[in-house]
Amino acid sequence: MATTSDIRNGLCIKHNNDIFKVVEFLHVKPGKGPAFVRTKLKSLSSGKVLENTFPAGRKIEDIRVETQKFQFLYPEGDSFHFMNTQDYNQITLQKNVIDAPGLLKEGEVVTIIINTEDDMPLSVDMPASVILEVTHTEPGVKGNTATNATKPATVETGAQVNVPLFINEGDKVKIDTAKGAYLERVKE
Questions:
Q1: Which of 80, 105, 125 is the last residue of a domain?
Q2: What is the CATH number of the domain that holds 96?
Q3: Which of 22, 43, 86, 100 is the most buried (most CB within 10 A)?
Q4: Which of 4-18, 97-111, 127-141, 144-158 shows the lowest mean pLDDT across its residues?
């Protein structure tokens, strides 16, 4: 058993007969009243995100997990195929378990969280950023913008990302996987 002081991003807990992963948390100590922890929890079975507030010091049931590196092989409908980089075993996961499936490129190495009690994969953690090639974007028109103008671009995985006007087709861009946002252009 853990308490609310053990809450951190990525912690897997049992709550309301489901397994959740902590996406965000904030310890709050108001001037009046008791302290509490405000959290955003993502259900690992349905993928839904809910907000919950725990009173400070409350016991929470954490789940023992281990992380393993897997390489993404290929998608097949709503199923995604991965291979363990140590023992080359392959597993298939559903799309709702993956944080940002649109940014997953074949050959990408991800971290999969596995429940140690029943060896079931719980969630897929993407790297902090990925580098993808822009396959389609309209040319940027200068002069009709004030500041920080962006345009939609399609990357090699098929995902849509807003990029600055100077990005052209064929450019490689670094994308933040948590927000799905453009970070920078990558020079080769």
A1: 125
A2: 2.40.50.140
A3: 22
A4: 144-158
**Same domain for 81 and 69:** yes
pLDDT digits (tens, 9 = 90+) for 80-89: 899 998 888 8
Query: pLDDT per residue over 124-135, tens digit each?
Result: 888 888 888 888
Is residue 120 domain-shared with residue 133, that is, in the same domain? no
- Read off φ and ψ for residue 108, nearest 5 degrees: -70, 135
Residue 65 near residue 122, CB atoms below 8 Å? yes
**Strands across the sheet with 150-155, in order?**
160-164, 150-155, 129-137, 172-176, 181-186
Same domain (yes/no): 82, 30: no
Count of domains for the chain: 3
Q: How many helices (H) and strands (E) does the chain have?
A: 0, 16
Q: Which domain holds residue 89?
A: 65-125
Rg (CA), the chain: 20
d(CA 59, CA 148): 46
Residue 98 β-bridge partners? 124
